[in-house]
Design brief:
Layout (H helix, E strand, L loop, with lengths): L1 H6 L5 E4 L6 H8 L5 E5 L5 H8 L4 H15 L4 E8 L7 H9 L6 E6 L16 H4 L6 H17 L8 H12 L18 E2 L4 E3 L8 E2 L5 H5 L2 H12 L20
Helix pairs in contact: 2-4, 7-8
Length: about 260
């Protein structure tokens, strides 16, 4: 799929928790033409990361995967991706320090918590019992940490990928995530695609898929009638869902 996408001059990004990755898969990734590998790294301590990922040994596997890919193909960008939550908020700055001094990683990208995709739209999902423990409890503490990241971005000498606008927006989002639904216009379009772990291809993860790469070649799916229909459905969508990715949006793109 990566090779197919590269033939279409698409910039390819592979996101992984590293759970299914072993050395032979690493070799295939290294020779695929992949542009960027985004690896989930949710803490500077193994205990924190493994807890959030629900499996012991994941922290060690993340670093092992980064080592393999760095050795096999230096041209692949390896980015750490951290989801900011109550569980790991105290480790955010230390994690940045770690990445800054690790030659394997080209950068670190922070994401805000969003509603899980496998549940009905619910604007107050973060207050539900099964998710509330993840939501940062002290806004002042979170803001101070985000201010430190912003300060580092202002120096221009950092591996933090997020823009200053995005980091500033995180403050507003975490203080009142439901405000995102007001006058929101989704900027998703058919210039990018998502392929999930089951092989389903979609323009928007919240809408019906185009098809599955296990059944049809990616080229066939993207040029199919159903792809055109999905594109039209997405462009016509006006659902005020809470499944929005503030990590990619700045204040100029989301009105609150």
């Amino acid at each position: 799929m990566i090779k197919c996408a590269r033939k279409r001059n698409l910039f390819t990004i592979l996101e992984t928790s590293c759970y299914p990755v072993h050395f032979k898969i690493g070799q295939k990734i290294a020779s695929s033409g992949l542009n960027r590998l985004c690896i989930s790294l949710d803490g500077v301590n193994a205990k924190t990361h493994d807890y959030l990922r629900g499996k012991r040994g994941m922290y060690k596997r993340v670093l092992q995967t980064a080592s393999w890919l760095h050795e096999l193909n230096h041209s692949i960008e390896i980015q750490a991706r951290c989801l900011i939550s109550q569980v790991n908020v105290s480790e955010v700055v230390s994690l940045v320090d770690y990445i800054e001094n690790d030659k394997r990683f080209s950068g670190i990208d922070f994401q805000a918590l969003v509603q899980p995709y496998d549940m009905p739209v619910c604007n107050y999902w973060y207050r539900l019992k099964e998710y509330s423990f993840l939501w940062p409890k002290k806004q002042d503490e979170l803001n101070a940490i985000l201010d430190e990241l912003i300060k580092r971005k202002e120096t221009g000498n950092t591996k933090i990928v997020n823009s200053i606008e995005q980091l500033e927006f995180f403050k507003t989002y975490y203080e009142n995530p439901e405000s995102l639904n007001k006058n929101k216009k989704c900027i998703s379009n058919d210039s990018s695609i998502v392929i999930n772990w089951l092989g389903y291809v979609s323009y928007c993860e919240s809408m019906n898929p185009i098809g599955n790469v296990h059944d049809f070649h990616l080229e066939q799916l993207l040029s199919s009638t159903i792809a055109k229909v999905r594109s039209e459905e997405m462009n016509a969508c006006n659902i005020k869902c809470s499944i929005i990715k503030p990590v990619y949006f700045g204040r100029e793109q989301v009105k609150v």
